[in-house]
Each structure stands twice: as structure tokens, then as C-alpha cells.
Amino acid sequence: MKILATLEEDFPCPASSAVEPQKYYDAFLKAEAILAAAPKQYRDTGENRLPELTSYLYRGGDAAAALYRKRDDASEVLTGLWLSAVRQTAGWYVAANATPVFHGFEKSSLADLPRQFKKPADLPKIGPFLAAYGIIFLWEDSIPSMKLDGAVFSLSSGQIVVALSLRYARLDHFWFTLMHELAHTVLHADRLSMPIFDDLDNISKDLTEQQADRLASDSLIPRNEWRSCPARYSNSVKDIVSFANRLGIPPQCVAGRLRRELGRYDLFSEIINEYNVREILNGRQS
After folding, report:
1. Within 13 A of 276's CA, how many CA atoms are on the CB side?
2. Which of 56, 117, 130, 179 could form a disulfide with 216, with the two C-beta atoms 3.0–4.6 Å apart?
3. How far apart are CA 155 and CA 161, in angstroms?
4. What is the mean predicted confidence (pLDDT) over 18-27?
5. In whole angstroms, what is the distance from residue 143 CA to residue 84 CA?
6. Beta-carbon neighbour count of residue 205 at 10 Å?
7. SS3 282
8. Are residues 128 and 91 in contact, defined by beta-carbon separation less than 8 angstroms?
9. What is the pLDDT of residues 177-193, one digit of tens each?
10. Model confidence, pTM
């Protein structure tokens, strides 16, 4: 079966004749050690994560992944563990659903996304919408000290996975992170055989990251619109809401961009903290 072949390629197991036994055993021991030192939430599900993490390490995953955007103190071990959990979920999603192969995602579709799903209650509908394009949208809770916002990578079966850590539960951060990862699918789909990891607190000089930042920002708020945004000069909540309504986007995206540009993260807290994305996506908030 094609699905089983896909899973075998993405998650090699010791039963395969192509697997080198000693190399696989070494990867197994390393995976056991990583899980033993992992936070409790990962130790509790270690038996389920162990095979995929072993396969990930066997393929050289801890050294092969391209970390485009990270701080020097970011933990690559925790990042690898988090990615292992994402890959495991993505693999079973492909096995359980008739998700088409990715054939492209247009800039116009990217710009329309925050307008189509403007209401916070509609966020859970984003996954099925993106699945029609061959994009598997997942979220896996951040691990403390991991310092990661999201990742994007392709599967051997032809789909692209966009995964968020939701380490910040703010709506503005959710939208920019999602738009950034999707910008990679628009601009860099041919480079995603190795994952791109993103810590958006870190300012990157990498051209790939700068391109994704620019497209994400312009898709949320076009440059010509931002230049004349009244809220930039008034810092008025009323102007923020009015401007956002005119563009058809959540006001949190406008407030968040203003906070970043001004370096004033004490501003607009009432708007910014109105919704908790983790609770919405996990079905705990309407």
C-alpha cells in the first residue's frame, strides 16, 4: 500500500532490510537517553515517541536539520524531540486522511487567510482548509527552554507540514507565525526536504528568513496601507480597531505590529490578551 510505503520511508523501523542494525540500535539508545531527560509530558508518552524519535535520529535528523533562525542558547535536543512528535502526528494524519500532494500555495491565498478566518472561533477550521492544498497544519505544545515558534518541512509523500509550538498564546503572535511558515511554502517549497525552524524573537540576517518575514507582514498588512495607518501616529485603540476592520483582519495583528515597531510591549494589553489561542485550538474557549 502507498500509505504504508510512505510511513516506512518517513519512519524506518528495524524490520526493514535496508536498516543497519547497529546504527539503529545506537539511535535507539540515544533516543532513550533524550526521552529520559525530557520534560514529564514527554516521558509520560515515551513509549509512543520512542520508535519515531529513534528513526529520526537514525536518519541523522539531529544533525541534518537546517536551523535557519535560532538563538545560541536554543536547545537542539529539545527541538529535535519536538519535531519528532510533530512528525509522528503528521505521519498518522497522512495515513488516516486522503490529503492531496502539495502543488503550491499562492500569495493571494496567503493574504486571504487571516481575513477568511478573522473570528478567533474559526481558527480550528484553518487545518481542514489548508489540507485541501496538501498542507498539514499541526500544533505541538512548546517544551520549556526550547525557544521555538514554528517549523515547516515536506514529507516524502508530497505534503508539507506547518507546525506551531504556541509558546505564546497571543492571537497576534499566532497569526504572524502561521503566515511566516506559510510564506515559506509560497517562496521556498523546493527547499523544505530539511525542516526550517523559526524562533521569531530572533532577528535573522538569512535571506530566506527575511523573505518570509516580508511576505508574512505584507500579506497581513500591505506596506502602502501601513504607511498611512492612523494608529501609528495616535496609538489610539479606536484607530487600531477601525484600521483593522477596514482591512478585514483581527485588530490584534495591528496592535501587535505597533508594539513591535515601538518596542513598547506594555501597550494595548487589553486587545492583545483578549484571546488565548491554545485554549481556542484545543477546544477550551469559544
Report:
1. 7
2. 179
3. 7
4. 84
5. 13
6. 7
7. coil
8. no
9. 999 999 999 999 999 98
10. 0.83
